[in-house]
Amino acid sequence: MVGKTSRADKKIAYDRKLSELLDECTQILIVAADNVGSKQLQDIRRGLRGHSVVLMGKNTMMKRTVRVHSDKTGNKAFLSLIPLLVGNVGLIFTKGDLKEVSEEVAKYKVGAPARVGLVAPIDVVVPPGNTGLDPSQTSFFQVLNIPTKINKGTVEIITPVELIRKGEKVGSSEAALLAKLGIRPFSYGLVVLSVYENGSVFSPEVLNLTEDDLIEKFAAGISMATALSLAISYPTLAAAPHMFINAYKNVLAIAVATDYSFPQADKVKEYIADPSKFAVAITSVAAVDSGASAAPAAKEEEKNEEPAEESDEDMGFDLFE
């Protein structure tokens, strides 16, 4: 007869498995598992099979294993996991793409009824329309101040009603009404709280960033660095072009206001001395543009011009001969 595995043996096996996963995987998703059933968790494990492992357990045991393993290996990066092991959480060790894994986990959400005493994760709004309930059920609606009317022998809700607000506890009346209406307002699944990768911990929102987002943020950072460099007159690679242009403007302003000059300033001074040259230059450019646009029009006109009709004299006779 095979004896049952003792609690101590289970702890040793769990410690060994967690240590092996810490060595094998450098990417870990820390997920909240509130209101997730065993069948739902089984489906998630099946969906992630081949590249990821879902490991649940007591926080105290996970923290102890992480500390001991960190001391054994000398890898202090594992210690950044300990502050994240709070509440009903689990770990998903993966060698796949973090974004794809998080999206796969999000697929396994199931609808759930509003149970009494449960804190609502979202606002619950009862839509208007026929409920299919007989008039004897109007007491539920009256208790919750939901406007109704009797239509064809059934209760009809007149306007949409915000029944439960996010963060509030579900009361017995609200739960009973939603059950009668067949409304399952909540959905639950594993929710990614944090992401661990090679010792770094970051928010899961980072996984949704695209290349365009990164380029935009990089450009914004360069703009800020450039503005700071210009403000404190500290030369940097980003600010250098602006500094040269500003210096050129200053030197040009001095040359215009004084007798000092240089080749680039001579042309500016020439235009200032004789503003009519501006008009000549603009007129020349306009003439070139109009000539370029007129040429195709002239060619088109020549194409469309029909040949003149031949006279009778050209044919060798006329009408009066």
UniProtKB/TrEMBL annotation:
Domain Large ribosomal subunit protein uL10-like insertion: 114-183
Region feature Disordered, mapped onto this chain: 293-321
InterPro entries: Ribosomal_protein_uL10 (IPR050323), Ribosomal_uL10 (IPR001790), Ribosomal_uL10-like_insert (IPR040637), Ribosomal_uL10-like_insert_sf (IPR043164), Ribosomal_uL10-like_sf (IPR043141), uL10_eukaryotes (IPR030670)
Pfam family, one: RL10P_insert
Record keywords: Ribonucleoprotein, Ribosomal protein
GO cellular component, as recorded: cytosolic large ribosomal subunit
BP terms from Gene Ontology: cytoplasmic translation; ribosomal large subunit assembly
GO molecular function, one term: structural constituent of ribosome
Regions of compositional bias (Acidic residues) in chain numbering: 307-321
Signal peptide: none
Function: Ribosomal protein P0 is the functional equivalent of E.coli protein L10.
Family per record: Belongs to the universal ribosomal protein uL10 family.
Protein name in the entry: 60S acidic ribosomal protein P0
Species whose genome carries this gene: Stephania cephalantha
